[in-house]
Sequence to fold (314 residues):
Amino acid sequence: MSHETLLLSSLVLGLMVLATVVGYVLKMRAGFEPHAVIDNLNARIKAWWVMIVVLGIAFALGRVAVVLLFFGVSFYALREFLTLAPTRRADYYALLMAFYVALPLQYFFILTSWYGMMSVFLPVYGFLLLPIFAAFGGDTTRFMERASTVQWGVMIAVYCISAIPALMLIPIPGYEDRNLLLIAWLVLVVQSSDILQYVCGKLFGKRKIAPLLSPSKTLEGFVGGVLAASVLGAALYWITPFSVMAAFFMALLVNLLGFAGGLVMSAIKRDRGVKDWGAMIEGHGGMLDRLDSLCFAAPIFFHVVRYGWGVVVG
Fold:
């Protein structure tokens, strides 16, 4: 285990212990009575503990374990997305292809370091083949909506999420065998932005930024959370191949994309008439509720790193 990994692990564990203690003290001061803000904060802390422990185990086991972990994450996220989708019995073949062909092949390409197919398989072949298999069902009722919903679900839950473990494919001069730290940086920065936006919004928020999509998001929370998380990204530059300033602007980029992704996913939930994607985390939604920001940030981050810092082959 490298010096950077040990130091990062110590910092993360220390911050998590501190956050847990703060959450407990706040709950105690509230007399352990139900409190929407404190309960929400503690639910986020619990979700972070689960995420950190699972990621830590996968990182310790190595590259294959990380790919298999995100394969499982994509499967569960796709299940959550399509559970709320307007599908019909005739979509059986398209759903079969999505879960048991498109999903495994995408992660097979990552596992075998086949960058070309990993990049174009779903956006090109998947987009063409999924509606074809949907058409085999012979049901034209709301066909365009149903077909595009499956396509969109595969793009969000499989293609976008798979960009996170795909960071291991990028050969970066002087950064060999440390790409797992790049995944840790991305997850820490984007997830910190979500929490800091929430905290800043509760402390200083006055003007709602998108009241119809996400009533809890405020302009003050957005600005404060994004800037604070971007500073955090700059402070963690030593685990990345970036300079301090480059780390700040990369963090700013992924945080802005994460915020936009959260709005898009909120719009989809409002359209389907639900508050959360699922109930995986007690009292705090499902897998996609915790990953909606990463879904939009990860693929852009992957390609910026590849072309900005990696050795591009082909």
